[in-house]
Amino acid sequence: MHCDPTPFEPFRFRGIDLHVKRDDLIHPLLSGNKYRKLFSRLHTDPGAIDTLVSYGGVQSNAMLSIAALCHEKGWRFEYTAKTVPEHLKANPYGNYAQALDLGMYLVEVPPRSYDAALSDLRESYGMRADKTLLVPQGGADPAARIGVEALADEIRAWMKDKGIDRLTVATPSGTGTTAAYLAASLPECHVVTVAAVGGPTYLKTQISALLPVPKNLRILPTRFRFAAPYPELLNVYEALKTAGIEFDLVYATVMWMALLEYRDTIKGALLYVHSGGVGGNESMLARYARL
Ligand SMILES: *Cc1c(COP(=O)(O)O)cnc(C)c1O
């Protein structure tokens, strides 16, 4: 199982010299770390499954990636989310519109019964005898490891080629699945991340459900609330774009703010793994425009 390695590009931003691993270019819809996390599913025989079930936010990058995967494989995709806001339903845009176009079957539940609906989902899944696969929110499951290891192998080959022996790899975290498996697969490197969702304690709990939190994983502090609009984040997004690479507004901007703040504490060469998700910018930019 392999795919063509994505490029390593030199990048300079506000006085930091680094390289960017362009995982955003890996696939038009399954972008960045979602491709890595769903890698083993991409190599699953189409006949092995008929339905894939997942849940989460209605503009999530994982949702779009899974929709693209199911579209390619001919699998039915059932996605449970909280009731879609009226304005979005009336004028679909962003990941939501694209996922519906790819055939996603959306199961809307009122916010107050969302948690109960997820418990039901897990329980009924355990009893289903048909060929259904449940992918937890954000693709946070042990099956994600193999694809992240392939990314680690590309990084190791690049280090050897460039003669780099001291490397810090930066990538933002939601569930922490990518950063943690990356750190575990690259024990010779340091991995720095930010807890974009819910803070460091929540992040460590999420990771611990999959593997022991790696010693070489460092969580940099951040003060931004998840997916909330902040002028500083929009500003860094625009500056990065001007510098030559578009990043996502929700995760990458928070990682970059932390890198700028903690750059002096990072020794050796720096590699930023682009985690994709640029497709989600349409809906975030619309929110910024409404402010
Ligand atoms: C999903 C996502 C993340 C978070 O990945 P985890 O493996 O859940 O930590 C980071 N960046 C972007 C752009 C994403 O879409």
Could you characterize what this model shows?
Helices cover 42% and strands 17% of the residues. It has 291 residues and is α/β, with parallel strands linked by helices. The protein has a six-stranded mixed sheet with strand order 1-2-10-7-8-9. A four-stranded parallel sheet has the order 5-4-3-6, sandwiched between helices. Helix 3 packs parallel to helix 5, helix 7 packs across helix 8 (177-185) and helix 10 (231-243) packs across helix 11. The longest helix has 18 residues, at 145-162. The protein is globular, with a radius of gyration of 19 Å. It starts with 7 loop residues before the first strand and ends with a helix. The mean pLDDT is 95.
Topology:
Elements: E1 8-13, E2 16-21, H1 32-37, H2 39-42, E3 51-55, H3 61-73, E4 76-82, H4 86-90, H5 94-101, E5 105-109, H6 114-127, E6 132-134, H7 145-162, E7 167-170, H8 177-185, E8 190-194, H9 199-208, E9 217-220, H10 231-243, H11 252-262, E10 269-273, H12 281-290
Parallel strand pairs: 2-10, 3-4, 3-6, 4-5, 7-8, 7-10, 8-9
Antiparallel strand pairs: 1-2
The protein binds pyridoxal-5'-phosphate.
Pyridoxal-5'-phosphate binds at residues 32-33, 61-62, 138, 140, 172-179, 248, 251, 275-277.
Order of helices and strands: EEHHEHEHHEHEHEHEHEHHEH
Oligomer: single chain
Helical stretch tally: 12
Please give the share of residues in helix: 40-55%
Number of DSSP strands?
10
Strand order of the largest sheet: 1-2-10-7-8-9
**What amount of the residues lies in strands?**
15-25%
Provide the low-confidence segments as ranges: none
- Tell me the Rg in angstroms: 19 Å
- Bound molecule types: pyridoxal-5'-phosphate
* Biggest pleated sheet: 6 strands, mixed
Q: Give the terminus-to-terminus CA distance.
A: 45 Å
The structure class reads alpha/beta
Label the overall shape: globular
Average pLDDT confidence is 95
